[in-house]
Amino acid sequence: MLCFSLGLSGDINPKIGYGKNFFYGSIEVTSDAKWVEKAKEYREKAEDDIKKNIDRLISILSYKNAVSSPDLVIW
Question: Where is 57: in which H helix or E strand?
Fold first, then answer.
């Protein structure tokens, strides 16, 4: 779970520091291949309800899903 939450599987990008409201702070964490595999393994072996929450996290924290401009956000 720790390997997944650090974003080692590549599915999510953790956020740090100030400026998250302005779309700053996404980071990419890298590691040895064995830890990347552990992160992917966690997602594959998780129960259905956990997989559902993982999918929600990915939709929120994936850099690929980031809003590219604050003008696009409905406040």
Answer: helix 48-61
In whole angstroms, what separates CA 9 from the centre of its chain?
9
Distance CA 53, CA 37 (A): 20
**What pTM, to 2 d.p., does this model score?**
0.61
Is-contact 39 9, C-beta < 8 A?
yes
Residue 42 three-state SS: helix
Distance CA 53, CA 44 (A): 13
Q: What are the pLDDT digits (tens) for 19-40?
A: 776 667 777 888 889 998 988 8
